[in-house]
Amino acid sequence: MRKYYDEITRIAGNVVTVRAEGVSYDELAVITTDRGPSLAQVIRLEADQVSLQIFAGTSGVSTGDKVRFLGRPMQVPFSDDLLGRVFDGSGRPRDGKPEVEADNVDIGSPAVNPIRRRMPDHMIETRIPMIDIFNSLVESQKLPIFSVAGEPYNEVLARVGLQADADVIILGGMGLRHDDYLKFRNRFEEGGMLGRTIMFVHTAADPTVETLMVPDLCLAVGEQYALAGKRVLVLLTDMTAFADALKEIAITMEQIPSNRGYPGDLYTQMARRYEKAVDFDEAGSMTVLACVTMPGDDVTHPVPDNTGYITEGQLYLRNGRIEPFGSLSRLKQQVNGDTRDDHRAIMNACIRLYADCTESREKRDMGFEMSAWDNKLLAYGEMFEDRILDLNVNIPLFDALDRCWDILAACFEPQETGIRRNIIDKHWPKDIGSQGPDNQEQETSETETQTAHAE
Amino acid sequence: MTGKIVACFGNMVIAEIDGRVVQNAVGTCHRQDGAELLSEVIRVRGKLADLQVFEETRGLKVGDKVTFRDEMLSVTLGPGLLGQIYDGLQNPLPELADAVGYFLEPGHYIHGLNTEAKWAFTPTAETGATVRAGDVLGFVPEGMFTHQIMVPFAWRGEYKVASVAKAGEYTVADTIATLTDADGNEHPVTMQQDWPVKREMSAFKRRLMPSDPLVTRVRIIDTMFPVVRGGTYCIPGPFGAGKTVLQQITSRHAEIDVVVLTACGERAGEVVETIREFPELTDPRTGKSLMERTIIVCNTSAMPVAARDASVYTGVTLAEYYRQMGLDVLLLADSTSRWAQAMREISGRLEEIPGEEAYPAYLESRIADFYERAGAVELNDGRTASVTVGGTVSPAGGNFEEPVTQGTLKVVGAFHGLSRERSDARRYPAIDPLDSWSQYTGIIDAKKAGRVRALLRRGNEVRQMMTVVGEEGTPIDDFTAMLKAEFVDSVYLQQNAFDPVDAATPRERQEFVFGKVLDVVDLDFGFENKDDARKVMFRATDLFRNWNYAPWLPEGTNEHETEEETTTPNGQAQPQEPGADQGDQKQGEGENEGGKDQTRSEEEIVEGRSEEFKRILGEIEAFIAAKGRTGAQESDESKQAEPQEATAAE
Question: What's the whole-model pTM score?
Answer without folding.
Answer: 0.89
